[in-house]
């Protein structure tokens, strides 16, 4: 009973906690013609296998005894982190008790689902149908993987508008493509059309993401809060809302949102990391340590694990005078740095962690030497917001170890001049300084100074002196390295190009500064910034 002609070249993975069920399913898949069949008894093992190998079929149970993580959590994480190719068929098995959870997710993430008990014939038909859908939509998937996103979007829209077979599936892919292509209004219209045809949470979340892309932050927040109120178990919406709150500088509110997401999916590595790091910056050391430790336990073998979590744990262990824990942190960060020698980021974290351990072991002079040496990199182009917050976090703990108040203030104000580009960045830096009154005041004062420099420069443009505005912004950008001032210089120069003598030279100066100082940050307060927006299907390139 072979499913199709290509099945004997296909690989399958069975993920089920019951060894008898696993054996039965493996034999059934072999009977269906699958050439290679593998198995995993735990979600964590399945994640590891799927990270390192491509499977054509995954048959996964929804619930696992003794584990808080479900098969749905595994699927969502794989999909969000680009580890599940479009060509892979993912089939979820569920009992009656969890049928509603799975059926609600089926339209957006699953290829099929089965309610236990089911027959071999039912399994055969579901897999056959899912593989057929992959073949029908093959032209869309091939266009995406070939980087031809315009072509793929057109194919998706045609299928949706003509209500051809698998139109809803194609609509979601098409909307994601439109967002990626910057066609936000069209994406929103497509999401709205899906909602009108058939209400699904992912389409409403897509509307919110399109609103955010267009700068409609207040409206997006309302959409997200409404979606969460009506569908409180839809974890992706918490991810997007948490990012919105963080960008608005509301750290405690963002932490509460990520707490909710981590509660819904307690073994999701990224949500544990986000909740743990935000707990750290919010000053809740106990919760931060617990979540960051759990992140390491769950994700230490995963590519999703971010070493920043161990860096923050090192700081907490330093506070607790935990020598053994610090040694573990040094070992982990150093190992990552050795494994990826090209990464300046990992090297910096390894050095800072080593400095903390050195000081804790009693070699104060040696540890401070490492810290001061690390700070000499602050003017470098690749020294980003994350490096700044880690540096402030370390220096804020060293005043009782030989760092003078004057030296500390100079470091904090220097970093603040460069990195207080927004309210969010300002509040994160203040949080990194342990929310202490003096450094928090220095950081906020510096932000106010930067904003005044920007306003004074812009006043020249208002008075009809755009060249003076651009020149001032460039000068201040050169002095501070502040990306906001530098980006404003470029924008004003381009906007008033016709009225500025020598404008090309000024634009070139602004571009040189932007290349040096306007490196996009990969994190803010430990929350990853990425084009892979939470709640969206990932468009593989």
Explain this structure.
The chain has helices at 19-32, 43-52, 71-80, 99-106, 120-136, 138-145, 149-161, 167-180, 184-197, 201-213, 217-230, 235-247, 251-264, 269-282, 285-299, 308-319, 323-339, 344-360, 364-375, 385-395, 405-419, 423-432, 437-462, 466-480, 483-495, 503-517, and strands spanning 11-15, 36-40, 57-61, 89-94, 112-115, 523-524, 527-528. The strands form two sheets. The protein has a five-stranded parallel β-sheet with strand order 2-1-3-4-5, with helices on both faces. Helix 16 (308-319) packs antiparallel against helix 17 and helix 20 (385-395) runs antiparallel to helix 21 (405-419). It is globular. The chain has 26 helices and seven strands. The chain has 541 residues and is mainly alpha-helical.
Summarize the structure in short.
This protein has helices at about 20-30, 45-50, 70-80, 100-105, 120-135, 140-145, 150-160, 165-180, 185-195, 200-215, 215-230, 235-245, 250-265, 270-280, 285-300, 310-320, 325-340, 345-360, 365-375, 385-395, 405-420, 425-430, 435-460, 465-480, 485-495, 505-515, and strands at about 10-15, 35-40, 55-60, 90-95, 110-115, 525, 525-530.
């Amino acid at each position: 009973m072979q499913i199709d002609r290509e099945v004997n070249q296909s690989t399958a993975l069975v993920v089920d906690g019951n060894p008898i069920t696993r054996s039965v399913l493996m034999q059934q898949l072999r009977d269906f013609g699958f050439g290679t069949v593998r198995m995993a008894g735990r979600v964590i093992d399945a994640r590891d296998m799927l990270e390192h190998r491509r499977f054509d079929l995954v048959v996964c149970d929804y619930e696992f005894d003794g584990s808080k993580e479900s098969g749905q959590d595994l699927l969502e994480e794989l999909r969000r982190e680009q580890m599940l190719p479009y060509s892979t068929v993912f089939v979820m098995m569920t009992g009656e008790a969890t049928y509603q959870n799975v059926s609600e997710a089926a339209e957006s993430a699953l290829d099929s689902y089965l309610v236990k008990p089911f027959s071999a014939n039912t399994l055969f038909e579901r897999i056959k149908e899912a593989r057929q859908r992959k073949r029908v939509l093959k032209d869309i998937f091939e266009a995406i993987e070939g980087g031809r996103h315009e072509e793929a979007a057109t194919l998706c829209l045609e299928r949706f508008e003509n209500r051809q077979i698998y139109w809803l599936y194609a609509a979601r892919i098409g909307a994601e493509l439109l967002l990626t292509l910057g066609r936000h209004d069209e994406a929103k219209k497509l999401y709205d059309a899906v909602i009108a045809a058939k209400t699904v949470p992912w389409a409403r979340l897509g509307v919110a993401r399109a609103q955010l892309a267009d700068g409609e932050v207040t409206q997006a927040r309302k959409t997200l809060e409404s979606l969460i109120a009506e569908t409180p178990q839809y974890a992706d919406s918490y991810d997007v809302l948490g990012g919105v709150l963080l960008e608005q500088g509301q750290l405690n509110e963002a932490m509460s949102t990520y707490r909710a997401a981590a509660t819904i999916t307690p073994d999701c590595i990224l949500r544990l990391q986000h909740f743990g790091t935000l707990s750290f910056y919010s000053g809740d050391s106990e919760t931060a340590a617990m979540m960051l430790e759990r992140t390491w336990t769950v994700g230490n073998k995963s590519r999703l694990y971010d070493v920043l979590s161990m860096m923050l744990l090192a700081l907490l262990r330093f506070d607790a005078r935990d020598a053994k824990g610090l040694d573990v942190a040094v070992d982990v960060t150093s190992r990552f740095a050795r494994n990826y020698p090209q990464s300046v980021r990992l090297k910096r974290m390894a050095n800072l962690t080593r400095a903390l351990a050195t000081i804790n072991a009693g070699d104060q002079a040696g540890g401070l030497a490492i810290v001061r040496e690390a700070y000499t990199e602050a003017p470098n182009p690749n020294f980003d917001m994350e490096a700044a917050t880690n540096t402030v976090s370390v220096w804020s703990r060293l005043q009782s170890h030989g760092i003078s108040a004057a030296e500390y203030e100079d470091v904090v104000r220097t970093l603040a001049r460069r990195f207080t580009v927004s309210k969010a960045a300002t509040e994160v830096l203040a949080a990194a300084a342990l929310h202490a009154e003096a450094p928090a005041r220095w950081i906020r004062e510096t932000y106010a100074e930067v904003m005044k420099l920007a306003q004074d420069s812009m006043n020249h443009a208002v008075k009809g002196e755009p060249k003076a505005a651009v020149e001032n912004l460039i000068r201040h950008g050169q002095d501070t390295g502040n990306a906001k001032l530098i980006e404003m210089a470029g924008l004003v120069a381009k906007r008033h190009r016709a009225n500025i003598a020598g404008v090309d030279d000024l634009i070139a100066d602004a571009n040189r500064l932007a290349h040096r100082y306007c490196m996009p940050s990969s994190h803010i307060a430990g929350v990853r910034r990425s084009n892979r927006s939470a709640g969206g299907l990932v468009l593989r390139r």
